[in-house]
Amino acid sequence: MNAMSKKEELKQQILDLTREYYCEVHGQKKEFLPGETFVNYGGRYFDEAEMVNLVDSSLDFWLTAGPWAHKFETRLAKWLGVKYCAVCNSGSSANLLAFYALTSPKLGERAIQRGDEVITVAAGFPTTVNPIIQFGAIPVFVDVALPGFDIDVWCCLYQ
Fold first, then answer.
1. Do 55 and 98 lie in a common domain?
2. DSSP result, 124-144
3. Residues 95 and 76 in one domain
4. Does residue 50 fall inside a structural domain?
5. Nearest-CA neighbor of 119 among 97, 146, 144, 149?
6. Are residues 48 and 23 in contact, defined by beta-carbon separation less than 8 angstroms?
7. Is the pLDDT of residue 1 over 60?
8. Are 132 and 138 in contact (CB under 8 A)?
9. Which residue range is the domain that position 19 belongs to?
């Protein structure tokens, strides 16, 4: 068996220390006490393996898409049963790419054209609307009808 190179040895030490750091700083599970324990509505969730993968990527200076992103894309595509999968840096960028896919000439007459009206949510994140406007289509804002949460056709008729 080959001895580890100095580089591999140092990297292994750093990753071992990362695991130890995670356990010391983030690994303690606090007992949940109803009425006393504060529960965040959202926030970061990560475990020891994710922290080690983060440090591992940074040591090889993969600060954007790299081996981990490729592995994720490959496995997600297989799980979804599709040929390709591509990750994005954010949901906003994913939304932009999804919208522009709907403008593809490959869709023929079904492609969204400049000036077309595009139905979108009345109360949402700005990056839902921005790709529509950026392309030159017209956003049509709709709300939901209670209790079924279907499109409120009355709000659509009176815009």
1. no
2. S-HHHHHHHHHHT-EEEEE-E
3. no
4. yes
5. 144
6. yes
7. no
8. yes
9. 6-29+38-80
Q: With beta carbons less than 8 A apart as the criterion, state whether 83 and 94 touch.
A: no
Q: What pLDDT is attached to residue 159?
A: 56
| Whether the predicted pLDDT of 41 surpasses 70 | yes
pLDDT at 153: 72
Using a cut of 0.70, tell me whether the model's pTM lies above it.
no
Give 14's contacts (C-beta < 8 A, 6+ positions apart): 55, 59
Report yes or no on 131 lying in a domain. Answer: yes
The per-residue pLDDT for 157 is: 59
The total number of structural domains that make up the chain: 2
Helix (H/G/I), strand (E/B), else coil: 121: strand
Q: What pLDDT shows up at residue 134?
A: 95
The stretch 110-126 carries a mean pLDDT of 92
Query: How is residue 117 written in tokens?
Result: 């009206």
Note whether residue 85 is domain-resident.
Answer: no
Verify that 61 and 21 share a domain, yes or no: yes
